[in-house]
Amino acid sequence: MSLPTRSRGTKSVALTYDDGPSDKSGELVRLLLEEGATATFFVTAENCTQRPEALALISAVPGLEIANHSYTHPNLTHLDEPMLEREVAGSKRAIEQTISRRVALFRPPEGQHDVRVRRAVADSGQAIIMWSLTSMDWKKERRPYVASTVVRQCRSGDIVLLHDWGTSDLEASRAIIRRLKRRGYSFVTVTELLGDVVPGEVYRGRVAPWWVFVRRAQGRFVYWRRLIAARTRRERGEHD
Ligand SMILES: [Zn+2]
To answer: Which class is 11-207 in CATH?
Structure first.
């Protein structure tokens, strides 16, 4: 069984499931097949080693994408170089060996990254994939509202953050898929949404062109303000 490919001209959304494979991955895969929706699984190499059958269930379905979510899910910004290499590049090698497929997408645990992490990700030939819409399924009190949160906020081009936990509410995923389908959405993998990615670059899904413009202008403004402030200090004879 495989998933239908997307038709052109429709609204697209990429569902992403982090932290698997879990004991519920099989049920989640079955649900996606039943609903005819694809998704991207950001798995940890450690969980892949512990649950090879669950990983096999995901990788057996053509159209589902497997991506890297580190080895053991630490905060990468706190690691020394050898540990960072293991978590970023070692995990990629381990996952690729298991599924015999290339992995080019990396999501840092908790979304934490800095210059060192981005360099390590670039060196390993992966791109950083963040998200543009969170389901808040990691917050216990928000769990009853996961489906309504996603459906209400979803726009075309979104990358939606969900989790493949043993405790996840799979019916929330079913509700999301059914309701978004009724609104004209089709489901794509992250690669289908973004196309070819550049190693080391950070992608967040839907970003309005005006927002890119504002961020660039902000960056320039901050740069010039710092420069002027440094010059003023020098002229006053203060130390930088
Ligand atoms: Zn995670």
So the answer is: alpha beta
